[in-house]
Write a structure and sequence with these properties.
The protein is of the alpha+beta class. The protein contains eight helices and eight strands. It has an eight-stranded mixed sheet with strand order 1-7-6-5-2-3-4-8, with helices on both faces. A hairpin with a 2-residue loop joins β5 and β6. The longest helix has 15 residues. The radius of gyration is 17 Å and the shape is globular.
Length: 193
């Protein structure tokens, strides 16, 4: 009653204040948003997409950037699905895409192999029991901001919506999504060299 409707719509005061932007598709998020968030991160870069392959094509200098970030003390982590795993095979049947999920994961693994001499860059496969949870949610954390994609039924990642979140509260949207990704990381297994 104290705040007119116009003010309430202009100034976020509830849980939605953590929402910086929304995109109807991950592919609608400008490349510059990714670049800015990655460049600005100082402590933690966590890429918890099931394949993460698009990062290597949309961020042309990603290898050099990750190497530099790691050298500056930033922890860099990748959580991917197992390219030989049961969930990956199931997802390939669902998507029925000529660019299979296992190939997309292998693109990430190939690029990560080029960073094998950088100990601050870690990679894990999500645990078999977590596969269904991981394949349906991508969380990309850059310090206190995250880009989150809840995957829709048979849509590939770039056709699913994306939220740009910024941590504003300990139990907000940002925390829920990032905590979920951290759980997947904790149960994951190291990527085999």
């Amino acid at each position: 009653m104290l705040w007119p409707k116009q003010i309430r719509q202009t100034f976020k005061s509830g849980p939605d204040r953590e929402i910086v932007a929304t995109y109807p598709f991950r592919s609608a998020c400008p490349r510059s948003v990714w670049t800015t968030l990655i460049d600005r991160a100082q402590c933690d870069l966590f890429f918890a997409g099931y394949t993460n392959y698009f990062l290597w094509t949309e961020q042309p200098q990603l290898l050099e950037t990750l190497r530099r970030k790691a050298g500056e003390g930033c922890r860099v982590r990748f959580l991917v699905g197992d390219p030989e795993g049961r969930i990956t095979q199931m997802r390939e049947r669902v998507e029925d895409n000529p660019f299979p999920v296992s190939t997309r994961i292998r693109i990430t693994l190939g690029n990560l192999a080029k960073l094998s001499d950088v100990p601050e860059v870690e990679a894990r496969y999500s645990a078999d029991l977590d596969g269904m949870n991981h394949v349906s949610l991508s969380v990309f954390r850059m310090d206190s901001e995250a880009l989150v994609t809840p995957h829709l039924a048979s849509a590939v990642g770039h056709d699913s919506p994306m939220f740009h979140l910024k941590r504003m509260a300990s139990k907000g949207l940002y925390g829920q999504f990032v905590d979920s990704a951290e759980e997947l990381w904790e149960r994951g297994t190291p990527v085999r060299a």
